[in-house]
Specification:
The complex is a heterodimer.
Chain A lengths: L4 H4 L3 H4 L7 H5 L8 H11 L1 H23 L18 H8 L16 H36 L1 H14 L4 H11 L4 H10 L1 H17 L2 H8 L4 H37 L9 H7 L10 H28 L7
Helix pairs in contact in A: 4-15, 5-7, 5-15, 7-8, 7-10, 7-11, 7-13, 7-14, 7-15, 9-10, 11-13, 13-14, 13-15, 14-15
Chain B lengths: L1 H29 L10 H5 L2 H14 L3 E5 H10 L5 H8 L10 H16 L3 E5 L16 E7 L2 H10 L2 E3 L15 E5 L17 E5 L5 E5 L6 E3 L2 E3 L13 H6 L8 E4 L5 E4 L1 E8 L3 H4 L1 H6 L4 E6 L6 H29 L4 H15 L2 H14 L17 H27 L2 H8 L4 H26 L6 H6 L8 H7 L3 H29 L11
Antiparallel strand pairs in B: 1-3, 2-3, 4-9, 5-6, 6-7, 7-8, 10-11, 12-13
Helix pairs in contact in B: 1-19, 4-5, 5-6, 11-12, 11-14, 12-14, 13-14, 14-16, 16-19, 18-19
The chains are: A mainly alpha, B alpha+beta.
Chain lengths: 322, 529
């Protein structure tokens, strides 16, 4: 078909430019653009379940932070009212009027169970994230050095064998008694040796990858250790670290619940303290909601965190990006 | 191999000592020691100077300080014959203030001060606390004592040197006349032949002058042959189980007394739960107590009793070992099945279960088991007096289900790793049947890491589980440490920690040895090349 170029209204120079053969350009290999994190999220969101879980997780976290700050929660507001104690949801809704505060009934001092568990969740989630952030940062950094240097390894293994045998309950309770058992004491107690096991785990992973052939080859070619660490090992570790994070963060909530239950928790009314305080209500007919609501919320939060983290860990493994 | 094990044991001993030092620093130096007085009725009932001395005696009892009151020093001098009774009485009379001391008192106070200050003690003199009318207040009498914090090094050394007690015939002070000292071997244990007429064959070694009367004997209690030549002292309890060693607290039976007709050495026969074999020397006990005088011919009168229940370790071990066995029986096959049926229904159900156990706080699912089990009619609280075996069911299940999950997880992981490895493909291409590949290759390789954990899970079955035992009120060993921490029982804290540390070192070593037995490729002895 003939095209009349003049009808298009362009000059000849605009339509045609001369392209010469370029040695440099012909050396380039074209491949689809690969962005690591884009691929991670592409794989992660490919599974529709993950979207649901992530939404649930975001909802719970936001709710735990926003709801308590919007509502006034005073656990002792109804302390003097003898009729307000240990109410089942139906009784509480009837007694206090139909309001979101009372859909889970009322607790031992007439406080709203619903408000109590969200205040508790906020404390527990904060604890888990702060401890997770501190322990993971220290653990990964120390673990990387520990795995790389044989001298550090010999020394750290001894430390690990010794400190690992000191009962952690003892250490935590001593710290809780030394300082008053506040939120920050708890953070300190959980992080003071908590990083050690993470560092040990990372150390093992680093040692496995460190002596792989491609790293030896890289070393022979004169790549600096820092570059090997950043370019060869860190990308490999990302999925390991994310998977580890997914088990670590919920575990702090579990640990906190456990410590509160044996009477060594913090003074704030976290989820663990709520469960501990309401233990007697478990077997009393009509009081079950006070006990099972914090248990259920703690379980849901930990499961959602764990599943979201595990799936993100799977997605961050480059082998799944095909 | 032997050299390697020895090296590992020495290494283990070193870490155990370090752990004990760390724990001692934690409990004796870092903790606020005045906390022990919080619930102490003796403290709230004493006033003025008496309160000061009471506090010091308490600190001594809990092991914080060496505390020597002036009167003890004088008693010591009197016992050594340096002063007579009159001088002692005169010297013990402290003036209201230092200036008002009589000459002889001042002389001995001076000596006391010099003796103990040279040893690093701090000597404290409390002047009499007087009312406005000049009378001494209640509990306000003048006091003098020497005190010092126990140094860490000497504390550690005394702890480890005193740990093993070897019984000897010079245990009873040489000044006490107890007749001929020595060990006698008899074929006819006098406990079973009290009158000497009925000859029941039961060999025993009996000591005189030793701490324990029976150093070796047989009876019908597990492990049937008992010895008292060497006894273990892990640390004396002060509040949890007063005056009793931690190890004894863990291993002595609990519950109600078992009465049986018993003939005492004097010939008196009555229904009693006493276990005559456990007799320990108690100086002068027959003089003070008519009951002992009527029953015993010598001062070996401190006796334990037969009780119906297991010991703390026993209860924990029964529950722990059954749940461990259950976990292996259930966990390994299910893990295998999950690996073989990867990505099918059974694998998915198993994965959800594993996720549930890992993510949900253990307290939550133990309560869930308790609630469900209670609905099904199982007893939810442990009762030592009950003969019912049903009460063991829920604690065992609660302990087993989490270990089942972790075994399933690892078994599946190891199996899948092995199934994807090259040697399996090679074996398949070589024409081996799937069954052969599975039983001869995959299973053997996958089991090796699992084997490593077996000694640990068996040994740690006896230390008990804190939450399970608390939730079902099992009288086991799991709560010993938390109880001791709550009651500031420092001796027990140190003893239990040492016990755990030794168990952990031993179980790791046994795991390594077992692994090298199962897998000949793993060798710990360095080969000559």
């Amino acid at each position: 078909m003939e095209i009349n170029y003049k009808e298009l209204g362009f000059t000849e120079e605009e339509l045609f430019t001369r392209v010469d053969h370029n040695e440099l350009e012909s050396e380039k290999i074209t491949a689809p653009r690969y962005s690591y994190w884009k691929s991670v999220f592409r794989v992660f969101f490919r599974n529709k379940l993950n979207i649901v879980i992530l939404a649930l997780l975001l909802f719970m976290i936001l709710f735990a932070y926003i709801y308590p700050s919007l509502t006034e929660y005073d656990p002792y507001a109804n302390l003097m009212d003898p009729n307000s104690k240990h109410l089942s949801p139906m009784a509480a809704l009837q007694y206090f009027g139909h309001n979101i505060h009372w859909i889970l009934g009322a607790g031992a001092s007439g406080e709203s169970t619903f408000d109590a568990i969200w205040n508790g969740s906020r404390i527990s989630i904060s604890l888990a994230f702060i401890c997770g952030a501190i322990n993971m940062t220290i653990g990964v950094l120390v673990g990387a050095v520990w795995g790389f240097s044989k001298k550090v390894d010999a020394f750290m293994i001894e430390i690990y064998n010794i400190v690992g045998n000191v009962p952690s309950i003892l250490l935590i309770s001593v710290l809780a008694m030394l300082f008053s058992p506040t939120f920050w004491t708890m953070v300190f107690a959980l992080t003071v040796i908590g990083w050690l096991s993470i560092a040990y785990f990372i150390r093992t992973q680093v040692i496995i990858i460190r002596d792989r052939e491609y790293n030896l080859a890289s070393k022979c070619l004169g790549t600096s250790t820092v570059k090997i660490a950043m370019k060869n090992i860190l990308p490999f570790m990302t999925s390991v670290i994310v998977t580890l994070l997914a088990t670590e963060i919920p575990s702090y909530i579990s640990t906190e619940v456990f410590l509160s239950y044996i009477g060594m928790g913090m003074s704030e009314m976290s989820l663990g303290r709520l469960i501990y305080a309401a233990e007697g209500a478990m077997v009393t007919p009509g009081w079950e909601f006070e006990f099972w609501s914090p248990v259920a919320i703690a379980s849901i939060i930990t499961v959602v965190l764990y599943v979201a983290g595990q799936n993100l860990g799977d997605a961050s493994d480059p082998r799944t990006h095909m | 191999m032997g050299k390697y094990i020895l090296k590992r044991l020495l290494h283990g001993a070193f870490s155990v000592i370090c752990v004990v030092i760390i724990v001692m620093v934690l409990v004796y130096s870092l903790l606020d020691r005045s906390l022990i007085l919080a619930g102490d009725s003796g403290y709230s009932h004493t006033t003025s100077n008496n309160r000061e001395t009471y506090v010091q005696s308490r600190y001594e009892a809990f092991g914080y300080v060496d505390y020597i009151p002036y009167s003890d020093y004088l008693n010591e001098l009197a016992r050594n014959g340096e002063i007579d009774a009159d001088t002692q009485t005169a010297a013990a009379r402290l003036g209201r203030t230092v200036e008002k001391d009589s000459e002889i008192t001042a002389q001995y106070v001076q000596k006391f001060t010099e003796t103990y200050e040279s040893q690093g003690y701090q000597v404290v003199r409390l002047d009499a606390d007087t009312k406005s009318n000049g009378q001494v207040k209640d509990g306000g009498a003048a006091a003098l004592y020497a005190t010092r914090d126990k140094p860490l090094i000497s504390r550690v050394i005394t702890y480890f040197t005193g740990m093993l007690f070897i019984d000897n015939i010079h245990f009873v002070p040489d000044t006490t006349d107890i007749g001929k000292r020595g060990l006698t071997f008899t074929l006819y244990d006098p406990v079973y032949n009290p009158t000497g007429t009925e000859k029941k064959l039961s060999p025993a070694i009996i000591g005189n002058g030793t701490k324990h009367k029976y150093l070796l004997y047989l009876d019908d209690q597990f492990p049937y042959i008992h010895q008292n030549f060497a006894t273990l002292n892990l640390g004396e309890s002060y509040t949890v189980n007063r005056g009793v060693d931690v190890f004894t607290t863990m291993v002595e039976s609990q519950g109600s007394y078992v009465l049986r007709s018993l003939t005492f050495p004097t010939g008196l026969t009555e229904d009693s739960a006493d276990n005559l074999h456990t007799a320990i020397y108690a100086e002068g006990s027959r003089e003070i107590n008519q009951v002992y005088a009527a029953r015993f011919n010598d001062d070996y009168t401190n006796i334990n009793t037969f009780k119906a229940g297991f010991s703390k370790l026993g209860f924990s071990f029964v529950i722990g070992i059954i749940s461990t066995i259950m976990a292996y029986i259930l966990g390994l096959p299910i893990g295998l099945l999950m690996a073989l049926q990867k990505d099918r229904l059974i694998d998915k159900i198993g994965t959800i279960y594993i996720m549930f156990i890992i993510a949900v706080p253990s307290l939550a699912y133990i309560f869930l088991f308790k609630a469900v089990g209670g609905k099904l009619g199982f007893p939810t609280l442990f009762n030592m007096e009950s003969q019912s075996k049903l009460m063991y069911v829920l604690p065992i299940i609660s302990l087993a289900l989490p270990s089942v999950a972790s075994l399933m997880r690892w078994m599946r992981r190891y199996m899948i790793d092995q199934m994807n490895s090259d040697y399996v493909k090679f074996a398949r291409s070589g024409g081996l049947s799937e069954r052969e590949i599975f039983t001869k290759h995959i299973w053997k390789n996958a089991a090796i890491p699992i084997v490593h954990g077996v000694p640990g899970s068996v040994i740690f079955a006896m230390t008990g589980a804190i939450i399970t035992e608390r939730v079902y009120s099992v009288p086991g060993a799991g709560n010993l440490l938390t109880n001791a921490i709550n009651k500031y029982d420092n001796g027990v804290i140190v003893g239990v920690t040492l016990f755990y540390a030794v168990l952990s070192v031993v179980s790791l070593l046994l795991g390594d040895i077992l692994m090298s037995v199962v897998d000949p490729r793993i060798s710990f002895s360095t080969k000559e090349r």
